[in-house]
Write a structure and sequence with these properties.
Radius of gyration: 23 Å
Number of strands: 20
Shape: globular
Number of helices: 16
Structural class: alpha+beta
CATH topology of the largest domain: Dipeptide-binding Protein, domain 3
């Protein structure tokens, strides 16, 4: 059975769950439900440190361990309290947060304003996630349960950025006492506490009985690393796992045909794209980059490799994101590609590599791209890397081209444009094309530092047009988010971002 869920339907499901309540219920301990939920995902956690591990496979685990100052309500899409029980905006550049009293970290220590300041300062200093919080100028402690956050300039999505999982609040004393221990044995204040990690195999979590919002409905969570999507499908069929994340289109029919399983799909906030390393020849030549953009038949890839799932991409942000502006999907035109290559000084083409992580759909997309590039004279070799190595080596700029996915977690274009296009964000923060363009920087900054929607939208329109001309990234497809589930799973809500939360989920025996 397949459930195609619109964003509105996701919200209705969340509303139904919210009405039912979030803590433990009468069925939790009477044998009606399993005491463990097991899910399978395609890659391991890259880091348990929320200020480092920003990749979706990491966040799918760590967002159960840590909390943020505020969160986005799944029902209304509005900001609601989490660590901060309330807040007030003091000016265009300052916010006062009142910390909820009595929150305990998993080691029993109380969460205070000191932890909040330490965490935000630490995230700002992180080479991996600073882009999400470096709009902050300073964090001032007023008392043990009150902080004032002052921004460098007016910043419209400030609160939504603070709701992103990599703005998590961590225990200052524990982290400072032994940073390495924190990475191996993470401690947060979230609904689940860390138990164990078997690298490249599994992670085990246990419900935190003293969680401020009440204990989770299921006692244990187990994440299993199953790189091959077909193996995740088999594990779902046999009951080895209850949920399977990020399934490939080849497995959809298998799940749909099984009366005991359900496939959930919904439009996502993700764009998949080829990033061209502008620090390397010939990708420092705009004509070469434009040639590659016009050599790719996006619709054919979607129709064949992706079995019709997804939409051809023009901008690097998806249509559901605030600030999206359509420049039109680049025309598939091999003749134009050949002319551009000739004009660039490569009439006979050139040789290069494209890197991708070991995900079946992504590998198959790149295989199709390699053949399309060969048709215009580019001899491109495909290299498949393990996910952690892929992230590390592309962050270091070792690649010629790389195939990436990016989700706009705040639903605001700044999250993506600043991370992927601003010259201050080269490498690990996200800019793996290593673009460094003063006009792009100016437009990104204009979008970041204005609260007037008209000014922001104009900046993002001009930015989309300029980036389409620069062609540092060849945007390929806006994808759907998906998960397969056993029909005994109750209250599972598909998150359009991909950070599925399981503290309210139960599985009938």
């Amino acid at each position: 059975m397949k459930k195609i869920i619109s964003i509105a339907a996701v919200l209705l499901l969340a509303a139904a769950f919210a009405f039912a309540g979030g803590g433990s219920d009468s069925g939790a301990g009477d044998g009606t439900y399993k005491d463990t939920i097991t899910w399978g995902q395609g890659a391991d956690v890259t880091s348990f440190d929320p200020h480092v591990g920003k990749e979706t496979p990491a966040v799918q685990v760590t967002n159960h361990i840590f909390d943020t100052l505020v969160e986005v309500d799944g029902v209304t899409n509005e900001l609601v309290p989490q660590v901060a029980e309330r807040w007030e905006q003091l000016s265009d550049v300052s916010y006062r947060f009142f910390i909820r009293k009595g929150i305990k970290f998993h080691n029993g220590t109380e969460l205070t304003a000191d932890d909040v300041k330490f965490s935000l300062d630490r995230a700002i200093a992180s080479g991996s996630v600073s882009y999400i919080v470096d709009f902050i100028d300073n964090v001032k402690i007023e008392d043990s349960y009150t902080v004032v956050v002052t921004t460098k300039a007016p910043y419209a999505p400030a609160l939504r950025n603070l709701a992103v999982p990599f703005a998590a609040i961590v225990p200052k004393a524990y982290v400072q006492a032994d940073p390495d221990r924190f990475i191996r044995q993470p401690i947060g204040s979230g609904p689940y506490k860390f138990v164990s990690w078997s690298q490249n195999d599994s992670v085990k979590l246990e419900a935190y009985e003293e969680y401020y919002a009440g204990p989770a409905k299921t006692k244990n969570l187990v994440m299993k690393v199953i790189p091959e999507a077909s193996q995740r499908t088999i594990a779902l069929e046999t009951g080895e796992i209850d949920l399977a994340y990020d399934m490939t289109t080849n497995d959809f029919k298998i799940v749909d045909a099984n009366k005991n399983l359900t496939m959930y799909t919904a439009p996502s906030l993700s764009c998949f794209y080829i990033s061209m390393n502008m620090r390397k020849k010939p990708f420092d030549n705009k004509l070469v980059r434009q040639a590659i953009t016009h050599a790719i038949d996006r619709q054919l890839i979607i129709d064949t490799v992706l079995s019709g799932s997804g939409e051809p991409a023009d901008a690097i942000v998806a249509p559901a994101v605030y600030g999206y502006y359509s420049t039109g999907v680049p025309e598939y035109n091999p003749a134009l590609s050949k002319k551009l290559l000739s004009d660039a000084g490569y009439p006979n083409g050139f040789s290069c590599t494209i890197w991708v992580n070991n995900n079946k759909d992504r590998v198959e997309v790149c295989q199709a791209v390699v053949e399309m590039l060969r048709e215009v004279g580019i001899n491109c070799k495909l290299e498949v890397l393990e996910f952690g190595a892929f992230i590390q080596r592309t962050s270091a700029g070792e690649h010629d081209m790389g195939y990436f996915g990016w989700v706009t977690s705040t639903k605001d274009a700044d999250y993506t444009y600043y991370s992927l296009e601003h010259s201050s964000q080269h490498g690990a923060p996200g800019n793996r094309s290593f673009i460094s363009d003063p006009e792009v920087d100016r437009l990104v900054t204009t979008g970041r530092t204005n609260t007037d929607p008209r000014i922001r939208e104009a900046a993002y329109r001009d930015l989309a047009v300029r980036l389409a001309d620069i062609a540092n990234n060849a945007n390929i497809v806006y994808t759907e988010i998906n998960a397969g589930a056993n029909n005994k799973v109750e209250n599972f809500i598909l998150d359009p971002i991909g950070y599925h939360k399981l503290e309210g989920v139960q599985v009938r025996r």
